[in-house]
Amino acid sequence: MAKYIKQEMPDMNGTGEKKCYYRMENAGNVSTQELIRHICSHAQGLTEGGLLHALAAVSEELSELLAQGHTVTLDGIGTFRAALGTKTGVRMDGIGENESSLNSASIEVTDVNFRCDARLVDSVNRRCSLTRGGVRRVNSSPYTKEERRNMLFAYLSEPGNKFIRVAEYAELTGMARSSATVELRKWAETKGSGLISKGKVSAKVYMKE
Predict the structure, then answer these.
(1) What is the pLDDT of residue 137?
(2) Rounded Cα distance, 29 and 161, in Å
(3) Number of C-beta neighbours around residue 120 at 10 A
(4) What secondary structure does DSSP assign to the chain, as a single string?
(5) Whether pTM exceeds 0.70
(6) pLDDT digits (tens, 9 = 90+) for 101-146
(7) What is the pLDDT of residue 62?
(8) Would you say residue 80 has pLDDT above 80?
């Protein structure tokens, strides 16, 4: 049974009005190996080794097709599309004729966007049984800063977790997104912290140095 949390939203405009939204409490990350074991326990004829090989093949072909400019749809899961941005330190061009033109060496893939299949949303909703999990206020993470750092690097050490986004870190630690953004940025900017960032603004990700 999943727990839902009433989460306070940060007052970014200084209006004094307190707003909230509902989110699921993080029940922990499921690694690739754990997912494979779950699948094989419910599907006859599948072996863990065979399924791991199939997932690796899907990942390889997915990256190849996205790199060629295709969108890729997995029925019942969703659609993937590569997102572009400028490399770190390069300013985006304006649209006017007098603006300088960036060449291809200045542009790179900064993210892969994912649009979930409505059937997956419906399936998750039908299976989900919720119970109240409490209220979380801004900056009310139940973990200390050191505990959050340990959780971050434990997450990044999991197979398949090469990077983490702000939203994922906020969910992992129970922090407000604004606070999670500041904390990750400070660590990435601190020499010797073991964390670096890549990408820009909404496409920024954080990974081990």
Answers:
(1) 67
(2) 10
(3) 14
(4) -EEEEEEEPP-TT------EEEEEPP--PPPHHHHHHHHHHHSTT--HHHHHHHHHHHHHHHHHHHHTT--EEETTTEEEEEEEEEPTTPPPP-SSTTSPPPPGGGEEEEEEEEEE-HHHHHHHHHH--EEEEEEE-TT--SS-HHHHHHHHHHHHTSTT---B-HHHHHHHHT--HHHHHHHHHHHHHSTTSSEEEES-GGG-EEEE-
(5) no
(6) 666 777 889 899 999 999 999 999 999 999 998 876 665 678 888 9
(7) 97
(8) yes
39: tokens are: 């699948």
- The span from the CA of 170 to the CA of 137, in Å, is 13
The two tokens of residue 127 are: 């299976």
Q: Mind listing the pLDDT tens digit for each residue in 47-69? A: 999 999 999 999 999 999 999 99
The crossing angle, in degrees rounded to 10, of helices 177-189 and 145-156 is 80
Residue of 129 and 19 predicted with greater confidence: 129
Cα separation, 141 vs 208, in Å, equals 22
Output the six-digit token pair for 110.
Answer: 């900064």
Residue 183 CB neighbours (<10 A): 20
Strands 195-198 and 107-116: unpaired
Stretch 77-101: mean pLDDT: 74
> Which amino acid belongs to residue 135?
V
C-alpha pair distances (Å), 188 with each of 63, 171, 206 = 27, 19, 8
Task: Compute CA 174 distance to the chain's CA centroid, rounded to the nearest angstrom.
Answer: 15
